[in-house]
Specification:
The structure is a homodimer.
Chain A lengths: L16 H13 L12 E3 L3 E2 L4 H13 L4 E6 L2 E7 L7 E5 L9 H9 L19 H19 L7 E5 L7 H9 L2 E6 L2 H9 L5 E3 L2 H13 L5 E5 L2 H11 L5 E2 L19 H9 L4 H24 L11 H7 L11 H10 L4 E7 L4 H14 L4 H13 L7 E6 L4 H13 L7 E5 L7 E2 L17 H13 L3 E6 L9 E9 L3 H24 L3 H10 L10
Parallel strand pairs in A: 3-5, 5-15, 6-7, 6-10, 7-9, 8-9
Antiparallel strand pairs in A: 1-2, 3-4, 11-12, 11-13, 13-16, 14-16, 15-16
Helix pairs in contact in A: 1-2, 4-5, 4-12, 8-10, 10-11, 13-14, 13-15, 15-17, 16-17, 17-18
Bound molecules: nicotinamide-adenine-dinucleotide (2 copies).
The site of one nicotinamide-adenine-dinucleotide has 28 residues of chain B, from strand 7 and helix 8.
Chain lengths: ~550, ~550
């Protein structure tokens, strides 16, 4: 076990900053502050890795240190396989991770290849060297809640409250994101340890003693228009039906229990946590546990449907609870939508997605300056300002200082150019790396998540992310990646990543302008092609040339 | 129904020759001399198309005519979906055809999307705008036979003979390819009409009256060291066992009946052709026909195994006959190899694959000059010379004049640079387009064909063709494509295409040098990574930088 940490400061060990950036970001992905299991090279998301093994890691580092400014390093599932001559406006690294010919695109075949040392699971930003820790989760949830506010409450969530459940790895971001979005929240969680952890890290503000207390607090804070997050120890499958019975009306209902895993993820109604853990640990009890958990989900979803019937906006947060309830007999379980079609797709239609950047100097001051620059660039965007303020105050950096926010087509390249100027002028201590998640507007085909229920039925068409990767390569991004199986697992998704470096040169400015324009533009294009009117309108406003749409 | 034909000559209707080349090659793919069913935009290979529909075709033409020299057109399954700014050293067109997220990568789902107008089957060179007619088939078969000669007979097939069956669309190339390779051949074909067609087009030289006559002719020509091709009307499932009984020993045995299709493709032993056609036309008889055909294949494969036991090199030519025989009870049906692992992979290990070029002038004289240039560039390559001579003499051009030959790493870029010089000097009347099949060294993952039985078990890893496409895009190819399902159908392959234009400029020379070096080099890299020693040796000789191989 060794400790990897990106060097800080202005001294570089590669031929230029573009290459140095790849080196530092690879190292940063494996920083113990960032990676979930750095010894196994696992960054996040199950077994999402940054390099295939330590020998490969060493060889990548070595190759980057020797790479010439007109060469390109190829990475095949975390292994450096070749160095080729391209040119200075081409990417310095090209990566393909976990891609399998469809008939063989299963976990079984992947694992066989993985055991043989021939493959690696890249997840999304793990294998693409642009993971920045849990800030991304808070931000994604925040955007989702903000968009819900825009759709249902005229963009103002003050005095509103969100009802949800689950304070686990992802779900724990919900109360903080709700607060950032300006809403109070009540989160039901069945394990006291999870509540304690979130209270300690200030992701949740208060714990209620019982349901009456919780509702009293909610009433108080919403009346005062304060955004306060409240946790309640309890079972969602019991609490939600009780709230329905009482006629309580939240302003938004969702859920992030781990309903996708009926053995380890969902406490059945009427069971104690101890009983649940014991059953989960004993394979002989799994069938009974699964049945009881599914029954709990059915009751839970029925309560969500009841809220929906009262007129409360209700969404599935990607935990498969609708499918479980349907299988358990709740016929109209899919009457409420998933979060992507409901709240994220409208953003994707305008090329809005998870824009992130990292200060290679390692100095938090550089991020503070870019935060200020973002506010200056987008003075009208109140919820961006709100996010930046709250993130600056409450999000701890992990590894190299970084920031994330969702901005759209026409905005991203402006931010990139402004950062490049700041590097050029010496205002920042070192270059800035800009990247994004693969979960973005034009970069993913994933029929169970990002491309669920596309208007034209094109959910499974993966031409789009491939074109995105090819175009970003053509435009001169610093590194570009093509992955399979991220988020939803082997066989279920294809997606691409992109990273571009602001090294303060004029050449970089040209590349930034192209790439950070084109990348979100492919998302607008993909959604316009699927028939979304807001995407067509965005394409028209921004003057995109989509031969069979904006010229027709 | 309208007729499309590429313009000839030096006058262009696009901003430059790079763009004009894409336009002409798209049109050429749909030329009635080239395409199998131009009215339906079908170029070849079942339903392999060049554009999704006529509206898309028109919009592509329009977009190309308006494209600026620093813009890139994106094609999604035959539809022009966007025009973006890149730069002059980037590709002018990027294409993604028929790609589906793996779980949905079936003919059923594809056809549903196809019916909705959302997709197109691109096959390999159809959707990549670089199909050149049947010359490619003859050449591929020729290379296979030559390589067999190298492996088994010291590179000299004179006085040798090949036993095979099937004179259909693909199989009909066998006798001509055998002659080109310097061997005599005996091809068994059960339909007189097929023999007549091949006699007329001079793909086969003579028809024998019966088996004794056929053997007498073979004896005569092999003794005289003449390469003469002989057809024999008969059923392979009857003739091959008889040859085994007689102890006749060919020098190579293979087969191209359509054993992959047991209803329409294989005449059962003891059946008349009329009886076969009637049964194929009557679904009620299909079960019986299938069983009889499978039985015939079993007998046929048993005879092939018997030849192999006598020491005769024996291969499957990609018609699935081994699988059929195995299913019918021939336990060791897979004792003889497929043609790729046997003969093509050694070529792939050296980056050797189907290099093709087209004269945009439309003047056959330009191809004659490039043929001569190839001989001049590669004076030692006797079988290349032989191919060029025979092709010049016996292959009729279809559409724009074109040539194909298999050359390897270190050769392709030299040919490209030489052609570019010839354009620059005015020796040729217009630019030359260089491309290749997706069936090539570094550009395809297809576990049932090109990547069958890889030494390390990496048959299904498709990172490789994706990296190939990204690198060719980075290098500045003129157009680059990523396809799914070519050759072997939906779910079974992923592959990439590349085309680069020699317009006679110095900038083109730089791109040509990079791309035509890198493209075959990725094939050497992929095979070296899989552990093939000849690929490792080739990488070393050519000075490739493969971080964990050539530096280790
Ligand atoms: N689609 C997406 O983008 C997306 C994003 C984030 C999370 N998710 C999904 O959200 C779910 C949660 O993810 P996670 O990482 O937080 O999981 P986790 O397992 O870490 O946390 C789940 C939490 O729910 C609690 N819980 C279980 N049953 C309960 C019940 N009946 N009542 C109250 N609390 C209960 C558990 O105690 C645990 O704390 C998963 O299903 C995940 O796949 C999807
Ligand atoms: N893997 C590859 O790259 C590759 C390349 C070319 C062809 N193939 C395969 O080769 C096969 C032939 O292709 P095609 O396009 O020529 O098919 P085709 O159907 O046009 O021709 C098959 C020929 O075999 C003859 N035939 C059938 N049964 C016979 C028998 N018992 N004895 C003698 N002749 C018989 C038919 O009369 C016909 O002329 C197919 O299975 C095809 O998939 C594979």
């Amino acid at each position: 076990p060794r400790t990897v940490r990106a060097p800080r400061g202005a001294e570089i060990s590669c031929a230029n900053w573009l290459i140095e950036a790849a080196l530092r970001m690879l190292q940063n992905n494996l920083d113990p502050e960032v990676a979930e299991n750095p010894d196994a090279l696992v960054v996040y998301g199950g077994i999402g890795k940054a390099a295939r093994n330590w020998a490969c890691f060493d060889a990548i580092v070595q190759s980057l240190k020797q790479l010439k400014p007109d060469e390109t390093l190829l990475i095949q599932s975390g292994k450096p396989v070749g160095v080729f001559r391209t040119h200075e406006n081409a990417p310095r690294v090209l990566l393909a991770n976990s891609n399998l010919v469809p008939k063989w695109a299963t976990w079984e075949h992947f694992s066989e290849l993985d055991r043989k040392g021939l493959m690696m699971y890249g997840q999304m930003t793990a294998g693409s060297w642009i993971y920045i820790g849990s800030q991304g989760i808070v931000q994604g949830t925040y955007e989702t809640f903000v968009e819900a506010g825009v759709q249902h409450y005229g963009g103002d969530l003050s005095g509103r409250w969100i009802l949800t459940a689950g304070l686990g790895g992802m779900g724990g971001a919900q109360p903080l994101a709700a607060s950032f979005a300006g809403a109070s929240s009540l989160t039901i969680e069945c394990q006291q340890s999870r509540i304690d952890f979130r209270l300690r890290s200030r992701y949740v503000d208060e714990q209620a003693t019982d349901l009456d207390d919780a509702l009293a607090r909610i009433q108080k804070y919403t009346a005062e228009k304060k955004a306060v997050s409240i946790a309640l120890l309890g079972n969602a499958a019991e609490v939600l039906p009780e709230l329905v019975r009482r006629g309580v009306k939240p302003d938004l209902v969702t859920d992030q229990t781990s309903a996708h895993d009926l053995v380890n993820g969902y406490l059945p109604a009427g069971w104690s946590v101890a009983q649940w853990k014991a059953a989960a640990a004993d394979p002989a009890q799994h069938a009974a546990l699964r049945a009881a958990a599914a029954q709990g989900c059915a009751v839970h979803v029925q309560a969500m449907l009841d809220f929906q019937a009262m007129g409360v906006p209700t969404v599935d947060y990607g935990n498969n609870i609708r499918q479980v309830a349907l299988d358990a007999g709740v016929k109209n379980a899919f009457a409420f939508p998933g979060f992507v079609p409901a709240y994220v797709r409208p953003l994707f239609c305008r090329g809005k997605g998870p824009f992130r950047w990292v200060a290679l100097s390692g100095d938090p001051e550089d991020i503070r300056k870019t935060d200020a620059k973002m506010k200056e660039l987008f003075p009208q965007d109140a919820h961006l300002h709100r996010w930046l303020d709250m993130a600056g105050e409450r999000i701890a950096f992990q590894g190299l200082p970084a920031r994330i926010c969702w901005i759209g087509l026409g905005e991203r390249h402006r931010a990139g150019l402004a950062f490049n100027e700041m590097v050029k002028s010496g205002e920042l201590k070192a270059p800035i790396v800009i990247g994004r998640d693969h979960l973005d507007s034009g970069s993913v085909a994933s029929p169970n998540r990002e491309t669920e229920a596309m208007q034209d039925g094109s959910d499974a068409v993966s031409d789009w992310p491939l074109l995105n990767a090819l175009l970003n390569t053509a435009g001169g991004a610093t590194w570009v990646s093509l992955h399979h199986g991220g988020g939803v697992g082997m066989g279920y998704s294809q997606h691409s990543g992109v990273v571009i470096v602001c090294d303060g040169t004029d050449e970089a400015a040209q590349r930034i302008e192209r790439v950070l324009w084109n990348d979100p533009a492919t998302g607008v294009m993909r959604h316009a092609d699927a028939g979304y009117e807001s995407a067509v309108a965005c394409a028209q406003e921004q003057g995109l040339n989509l031969p069979m749409i904006t010229k027709a």
